[in-house]
Design a protein that fits this description.
mainly alpha; 7 helices
Length: 146
């Protein structure tokens, strides 16, 4: 098995589109080497970095936060269990907040979640007389739950 993978192989193995891989590379989240033909070649540890990026995005980390976390990981080999443990230690609170947010969304699906209709003068469901407008624009019932 070759040490270097093509962009197509990395896309297939990671489930991430080639265009996203190129984007991640321009953001400095992953790196590649260039073959004599100029094509990108990736070292196998990039697969774990990509898995980390996908997971981190799913729990709500921004690309800047992801870049900061990845800067703490080794670039030349796959991160160890200790590396992952150190990075993920601060994520429990964030994951708990995300779970609570999703539970609020699930529980509010049949009710108004503050859909942004705040410009309406009257919402017969949950915002009569547009009372939520005094709290600001957007989905106030949703964003004010934090």
């Amino acid at each position: 098995m070759s040490e270097l993978l093509t962009i197509g192989e990395v896309a297939r193995r990671s489930g991430v589109a080639s265009s996203a891989l190129r984007f991640y590379e321009t953001r400095g989240l992953i790196s590649s080497e260039r073959a004599g033909s100029g094509h990108r070649r990736y070292r196998r540890p990039v697969l774990r970095r990509i898995a980390f990026i996908v997971f981190a995005q799913r729990i709500g980390l921004s690309l800047d936060e992801i870049a900061g976390a990845l800067a703490e990981l080794p670039d030349d080999h796959a991160p160890t269990k200790q590396d992952w443990s150190r990075l993920s230690a601060t994520w429990s609170d964030r994951i708990d907040a995300r779970i609570a947010e999703l539970e609020r969304l699930r529980d509010s699906l049949t009710d108004c979640i503050g859909c942004g209709c705040l410009s309406l003068s009257r919402c017969a469901l949950s915002n009569p007389d547009d009372r939520a407008a005094e709290f600001g624009p957007g989905p106030r019932r949703w964003v004010d739950q934090d």
